[in-house]
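Re: the multi-chain job from yesterday

Posting the exact lines I submitted so nobody has to dig through the queue logs.
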Amino acid sequence: MKAEPQPSVPARMTDRTDRTRLIASATRRGKGRRPVAPPIERASTLLNDTPGAMRDDSQGPVYGIEDLSAARELRDLLCDLEGAADAWLVPSGLAAVTVPLTALLRHGDEVLTTDALYGPSRRFLRRHLGARGITTAFHAAGAATDDILAAITDRTRLLLIESPASLTFEMLDVPALAAACRARGVLTVMDNTWASGLAFKPLAFGVDVSVQAVTKYVAGHSDLLMGSIAVADPKVGRAIAETLEDLGWRVSPDDAWLALRGLRTLPLRYLEQARSARMVADWLNARPEVAEILYPALPGAAGHDLWARDYAGAASLFGVVMRGGGEAAAHALMTALKLFGLGYSWGGFESLITHETGQLSGRRWPPVLAGQLLRLHVGLEDPHDLIADLESGLAAWRAALS
Ligand SMILES: Cc1ncc(COP(=O)(O)O)c(C=O)c1O
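And the result, structure tokens for all chains:
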């Protein structure tokens, strides 16, 4: 008989503070009769009654590029979530990484980052910044803090942190890195998409710039692209605000409205998906076809101690290292699944699976894994159904190997 998977969620993941605050801002009094959600204002230009009013800043924005109601409310709410002095919206999660780097780096500077960085961010470092005289040094994924700090040179201007890192989910000691970098005058930018501003608060741990792909859990419905950039220090913020002004990047009012709607229910979705992810990960971990689960939230997994110390929750995204196999077996497993979509982005309501072995070859130090690497995103479906689906996937895997 199949063992019934038990939900097992750390107590801290039921923290209600963010959950209440993200909703309470909508019902705050003193703003008169109004809809709960702000209007979607589609506007390039805003009209004025008099020529004098055109230069009166107290009347709000005069141009759509200054952000209208939904974007302003979303920015305020992201500031609240991130504990930030200011937050900006950009057209993708990738742009949330590239804008602070553009703003804070100059010709001759060097960036230090993980070998397991999100691929398109790595491409930006190589192609765009490399062509402009800004070099990149890599540290091994999941390196010890001292080894990372030893790689800092006179030219290191910025440490780009991604923890857990892409595809292989290595954790870093972010509080220690942030403190040591600040003491040495090295700026820190963290791609915090996995924690979604909820399970980990980079600014509270001394990171200078916290970025995330709003595309993922905040939007939550796989229907838009957006990124956010949050800072605690207004001086760092000024460089970012001016860069955005210079580049002319803003998000559409419709997307801002959808992302704001997503943000209201982020904690509930995130918590529920983590609960299901943990059940699925526990079940997979006990299977003979699986060699290792790459998921810091799982006791015994790499990075679990750091996660348990610093995180108040977990994303529903993790890696599955199969025992041996090849591409054909991985594809057979994926083909047999009926509930997991075959798709790359994550953080939406739907479960997804990708085959990632091929992506690892671009690393300087490709990890030595026991077999094929799959990545699972667990959505809001009933986890028992997902497990039954994976059972068929594993049967197809075994058949492909025999
Ligand atoms: C860690 C991480 N950062 C940033 C991004 C980029 O987000 P977007 O798809 O909105 O550009 C992704 C997308 O997969 C990601 O996984």
